[in-house]
Structures are given as structure tokens and as C-alpha cells.
Sequence to fold (433 residues):
Amino acid sequence: MREHMVKRKASPEKERKLFIENLSREKFCKILDGLPSTFRFKLTNVRDDFDGYWEKTILDGKTAWRKDDKVLLSQFLFAFREEVCVAIDREIGAYYKAKRNWEGIRKILFSDEAMQILTKKKGEITLILTKEKIKTLYFKQNKSLEDIAKEYGCSRTAIMKIMKKYRLVRRTQSKARIEAMKKGKFERFGYYEINENFFSEWSPEMAWVLGLLFTDGFIRPSRISIWSMDIELLEKVKKTLNSSNPIRITAQSYDKSKHIHTFGFYREKMMEDLNRLGLHQKKSLNMIFPKVPEEYIRHFIRGCWDGDGSIYFESKKLRGSYTCGSFKFIEKLVQELYRAEIYKRTPPSDKSERDKMWSNYPDGRFPLKIHEEKRSKSYYIKIDSKDGLEKLFHYLYDGVDESIYLSRKYNTFVKGLKLEKNETGQLTLDLEI
Fold:
């Protein structure tokens, strides 16, 4: 019985010896090639210049081993194959709780299981996933935490802990979602290009789109949308944002024969910029006119007018109006129009209100009157004077490229003001109202 037990205990040693004796140089190199990157083993009592830790590296596409300033290809360690195999056996056993005999280790060395062993024990995965390796996988190759975890046979939580240890900042949920969409992980959502920095700096284009969002925009936690009956308007917005996201068409709920168009987008950076500019959810009744640089105010107002403004004919006469749910917003808009000399000369009929007006505006020029529509809980202004409509046209469109205004309203202006091009190609006014 005792002899039988001794034989059983000795058999793994015999297996190892037999295996090493019959190990060819090619198979030996294959074993070392199959070990995980950054694997290392320690040689002892071999030779002074060979004793110590050897770390795996790649030299000219081949597996090599580095110790201090010495680098050797795997084939040059074949002379010490027994010592190397014992060292590898010892190193793998250090990471695995259960005892393994040499036959088990031999099978592992010819498979990917070696990497699984080295990563199963909690905390030891950091010996393989160095800071540089994580940066390459996560930031350069844009792999997800889940992808890395599957590749290295561990949990997503383990990868998160490693990143925390190295103080590596993880992608935001928005950026992670974008990377997932790029790889086709979300079948319902496709990835699209867009200028994420569009709202970071002021420009005529940015101010115009911002005006549209303040009026026709719909803001949700994970989506920004613009709704319009005019598909041309949304096509211009899409092009201005350099976006590849399609415009969607939806039938009107009250009339299925009519359609409304919507263009949506989302990037965390864009949402942060819009929030900084004063655009938030449920904005209709409490939005405030944003702080817009002087040179871009008219572009912002043109965007607002393309959204909530109207240019129309009433009894064959051109008229203009603007409607808004926020009194503070329309009040500021009226002040900006007044600065652009778009005002009224007729004083209010109410004496107290008229006296107040005259005290604030002694030159007889008064801001446009803000009317209240109680049923719809909104406010509106009207422009019907020859001078006011002419100045509004110049204010909104002079020197502006057609890519950043709604053609339908522009053309109504041109028709109502009876504009004609002169010899230089400039529009001239022949206003009769």
C-alpha cells in the first residue's frame, strides 16, 4: 500500500522528466510563445548571469526574454529547458489555489488556459494588465471593459478596479454608448458622425441653430431634437452640424395626411454646452434669453424667428409676428429689436402706461408692444409698419448665407417687400403697404 502511494507521488515527477527529455526546440519555443504577455519566471542556481527574473517581450515579432540589459530569444533558453519548465510550473502554481501535477501544467502550456489561470485569482491580474497595456486596450483600441474582461478571463469589476488603481479615467456613459454603437452592439441604434464641438464656440451658424433649439427644440436627458414642418430647415441644420444622422418623418396625430419632420442628435459634450448656454428641459414657459455676443445676436434671433416667428399676408399686406411662452424671453427679444431700431411710434392708449413710456423713451420711439394670449398662456408681438418690416428684413438677412435661414420665410419677405435685384445683384426695396 505504502509502495503504491510512493509510486503515485513520484509519477508526476517522472512525467515531467520524460516530457522534458522528449521536448524539441520547436515545442519548447511554442510553449514560451503561448505564455501571456508580460509573463515572467525566475531562474535560480543556473548561472550567475542567468539567475533572476526573465520577463517576456517581443523582439522583431518573435518571443524574447529580458533580464536587466540582457535579451534572449526563446531558442537560446533551450539549453536550460528543465530549469525554465520548472520555473514556469512554479510561477503558474503561485497564481492557482489548487495543486496541479505536471501533466496538468503541460496541457495548460499548450492552450490558452495559462492566461485564464493567471487572471482568475483576485488582484493578480494586474501582473499581466499593466498600465500601458490597459491604456492600449481601452483608449487606443477602444475596447469596452466587458471586452477586456472576456479577453483576459476575469470580471468587468476586476478591470474597473485595475483602472482605479492606475487612476485611469473611464469613458462617460455617452462615449461608451457611442463606441458600442460603432461596433454594432446596439441593433436599434446606429452610430452617426457629428461635430461635437459645434456649440463650444460662437459663430453665425452656431447662433442660428441655437435660436432654433430655443424655439423648436425638444430636450431630453439623452436626446436633442428639432421638429419642423419644413424638411429644408432640418436638412440645413444637419449639414451645418456635419451630421450623418437621418431626418425622420412622422404623420401628424390630428391629420395623418400631413407630416412633421424631426432631426435628433446627442453627445454629452453638446448637451453640456447647451446647458451652459441656458437651454434645459421643459424650457417653453420659463426660458431666459441667453447671453449672446453682440456680433451674433441677430443670427440667434433669426433662428428664433425661423422657429416661432411668422411672416405672412393679411388682407394682401405683409405682416410679421413672434410668439413665445416665456415673457422674460420675448421681453429681451423686444429690447434687442429696439436696439436695432425696430420699434413703434404709436404710444399706448392707457394714460398711465403712456406716461411711463414717455418717461422712459422721451424721443417718441417705443418698444414693440407685447400682447398676452391668455388661452394659450403665451405672449406675442406684431410688426405691420413699412419701416419696421424693412428694418427687420435687413436685420435678419443682410450678408447672411442662405444655408442658415429658412427659405420659405425669406421668400415671403421678398415677395411682400417687392424686392428686386439691381445691376450689382443686390436686392432693393419697393415696399407698398
The chain has four domains: 2-119, 125-170, 204-291, 303-428. The first strand starts at residue 40 and ends at 43. The longest helix spans residues 2-21.
